[in-house]
Task: inverse folding
């Protein structure tokens, strides 16, 4: 949990996305800033370089750090029916004494009621399944695009990116038309004579998984493509020359070298999928319990912004743990591959 | 509490249709209303008469409206929350401004009985004017229900849906409930013969047990999907809002698909609700908001809305203008003996609401 400050050189390894996400938690712990300031003081980091890297930090501070602090603040207050619907942390008593009132009840509730744990575990389970399926589908796609003739690559990549031109919401709605009882899929299966009665695809974990995999597949394919297309082909030629079979060459060269893309893609799918609300709400059933949905209930049905904020903070902290783990795994695998090569 | 075509957040994102006829004027009013809750020409006629442009936006749950109001600076000028418990607590916490009644000459058209009833949550009717009112009961596909429950099954009692042996049979043709813990718990408490305004957690547990026993037989919990499904014959019993179910009935009739829908107020009674027109404290165009409220109190305008959405209005002068089939429908304007059995949603403490919401999640998910 307490990695040493990372020298700037190792931060440029891997596709930009992973370093960016990696920086978030490092920034959270303040290590990078400390390292940078120390670097400046010792003269190992130039001022110009520091200025350039300061931009993303400012961005993070403004659009992630600050809102997070606001949410953190609300999570320690109490709910009231008023505008805003929570109590202030700091109040002035008559005699000029500042009173700080911190309410830990919200976090206590998260621990006491199994609902939050069940919802979180179920979210992680569904997100992990979706990530695995995305990886299994996305890797061959990215591989095929990377190995395709240069003239084919651009159209193939366009096919991956093209769905983004349609509203995400419309695309998820379209799945209702496909999966519902008298939808395209059931009608096709009945027409083919595979089934007599429509299968209940909608309002199940299955439909939620379909929605997540469909929506996030491009986020898996693109970083994988980026790493696979950068790979040094001569390594495979050398392997073939030395009598290595293609299958073994793939497992011992291509796969390890694309590991950074695998990790980046998996994180880009897994992290938003855990907190996903739209897909389970539209495609899921009443018994689809996910943390995004619990947050909605806290916010709207209970009108309890403090507990909703506590859920948000806890979810973020629980996401940082897998993040750290992924980041470490990636660094180690990169190191290992570098040693190998 | 009316028909919705989209899930709550989707309403905010995609369904919000900005009906903005462009008239040569800078005056604007931002209306935030339930989905499918005005007549086709309501906004156009208002703009023609007053020269005020309407920006129209819709929601399908009181919760979404309340969250926006509590966050502040919603930008809306007129909103339509349900009287109890929503408008009541929102008025109490100062979310609405007092009406300048000198700007509302059409107030004279309102039904004094209903105005008096509303004064119980808004003393002297200082903040709000009633819009439409209705009940929450059961939509029944009569033929299908008779087919599964037998020709002389009692379809006027809640035991039709709450007795597990009945619910098990209804599962074959589709039983649905509103995903609304206020409405569902009130109904189950009433079925158990308990006080709807109970403050005892034990009563909430008992009501939750009623649902747990029939949970396997419930097709879904949703605030609007049942309208289409009832009309198409995909479900046979839906807990829902009167006007929505009557709209389903009309759609089935229009489609001539042989689906025969009936709206039933159970003999145990049903929730009576009133939606109220209110102006948020921070409304950017309060004068235009008053003009809109005054326009809705115009008998002709509001009668057209009632005719279109199948909900009763609170305008006495409009009664003569409401179409006969709407006025004589006991599901829309219930006879006095039925009115006596109707009840309102209670005001509850925050801790009881939380307990009820938690129980409802447990009913739905088993967690």
Result:
């Amino acid at each position: 949990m307490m990695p040493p400050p990372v020298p700037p050189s190792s931060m440029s390894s891997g596709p930009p996305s992973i370093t960016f996400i990696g920086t978030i938690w490092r920034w959270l712990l303040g290590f990078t800033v400390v390292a940078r300031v120390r670097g400046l003081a010792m003269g190992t980091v130039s001022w110009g370089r520091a200025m350039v890297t300061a931009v993303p930090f400012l961005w993070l501070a403004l659009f992630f750090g600050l809102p997070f602090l606001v949410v953190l603040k609300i999570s320690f207050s109490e709910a009231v029916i008023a505008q805003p619907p929570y109590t202030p942390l700091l109040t002035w008593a008559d005699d000029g004494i500042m009173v700080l009132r911190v309410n830990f009840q919200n976090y206590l509730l998260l621990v006491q009621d199994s609902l939050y744990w069940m919802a979180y575990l179920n979210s992680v389970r569904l997100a992990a399944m979706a990530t695995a399926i995305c990886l299994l589908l996305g890797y061959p796609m990215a591989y095929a695009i990377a190995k395709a003739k240069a003239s084919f690559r651009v159209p193939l990549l366009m096919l991956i990116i093209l769905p983004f031109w349609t509203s995400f919401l419309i695309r998820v709605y379209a799945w209702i038309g496909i999966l519902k009882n008298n939808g395209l899929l059931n009608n096709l299966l009945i027409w083919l004579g595979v089934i007599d009665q429509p299968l209940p695809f909608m309002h199940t974990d299955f439909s939620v998984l379909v929605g997540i995999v469909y929506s996030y597949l491009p986020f898996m394919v693109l970083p994988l493509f980026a790493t696979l297309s950068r790979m040094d082909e001569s390594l495979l030629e050398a392997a073939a020359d030395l009598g290595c079979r293609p299958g073994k060459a793939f497992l011992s060269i291509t796969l390890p070298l694309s590991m950074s893309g695998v990790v980046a893609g998996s994180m880009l799918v897994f992290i938003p999928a855990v907190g996903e609300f739209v897909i389970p709400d539209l495609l899921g059933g009443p018994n689809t319990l996910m943390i995004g949905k619990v947050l909605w209930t806290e916010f709207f049905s209970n009108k309890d912004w403090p507990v909703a904020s506590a859920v948000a903070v806890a979810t973020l902290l629980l996401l940082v743990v897998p993040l750290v783990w992924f980041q470490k795994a990636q660094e180690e695998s990169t190191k290992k591959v570098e040693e190998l090569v | 509490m009316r028909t919705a075509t989209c899930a709550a957040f989707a309403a905010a994102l995609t369904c919000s249709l900005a009906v903005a006829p462009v008239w040569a004027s800078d005056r604007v009013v931002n209306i935030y209303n339930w989905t499918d809750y005005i007549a086709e020409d309501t906004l156009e006629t208002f703009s023609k008469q007053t020269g005020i442009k309407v920006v129209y936006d819709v929601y399908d749950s009181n919760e979404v409206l309340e969250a926006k109001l509590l966050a502040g600076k919603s930008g809306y000028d007129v909103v339509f929350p349900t009287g109890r418990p929503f408008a009541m607590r929102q008025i109490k916490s100062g979310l609405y401004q007092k009406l300048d009644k000198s700007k509302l000459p059409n107030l004279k058209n309102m039904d004094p009985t209903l105005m008096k009833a509303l004064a119980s949550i808004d003393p002297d009717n200082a903040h709000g004017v009633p819009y439409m009112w209705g009940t929450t009961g059961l939509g029944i596909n009569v033929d299908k229900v008779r087919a599964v429950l037998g020709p002389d099954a009692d379809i006027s009692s809640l035991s039709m849906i709450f007795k597990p042996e009945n619910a098990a049979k209804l599962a074959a043709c589709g039983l649905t409930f509103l995903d609304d813990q206020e409405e569902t718990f009130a109904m189950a408490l009433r079925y158990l013969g308990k006080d709807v305004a109970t403050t005892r957690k034990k009563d909430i547990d008992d009501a939750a047990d009623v649902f747990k026993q029939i949970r396997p037989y419930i097709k879904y919990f949703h605030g609007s999907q049942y309208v289409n499904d009832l009309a198409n014959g995909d479900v046979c019993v839906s807990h829902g809002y009167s006007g929505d179910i009557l709209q389903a009935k009309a759609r089935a009739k229009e489609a001539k698909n042989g689906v025969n829908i009936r709206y039933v107020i159970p003999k145990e009674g049903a929730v009576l609700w009133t939606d109220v027109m209110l102006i948020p404290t921070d409304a950017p165009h309060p004068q235009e908001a008053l003009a809109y409220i005054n326009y809705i109190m115009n008998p002709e305008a509001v009668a057209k809305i009632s005719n279109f959405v199948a909900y009763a209005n609170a305008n006495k002068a409009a009664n003569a203008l409401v179409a006969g089939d709407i006025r004589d429908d006991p599901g829309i304007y219930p006879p006095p003996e039925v009115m006596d059995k109707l009840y309102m949603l209670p005001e509850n403490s925050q801790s009881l609401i939380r307990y009820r919401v938690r129980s409802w999640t447990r009913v739905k998910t088993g967690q």
User: Anything to note?
Assistant: Chain A has a mean pLDDT of 84. Chain A is about 70% helix and 0% strand. The longest strand of chain A covers residues 90-92. The domain at 114-340 of chain A is CATH 1.10.3720.10 (MetI-like fold).
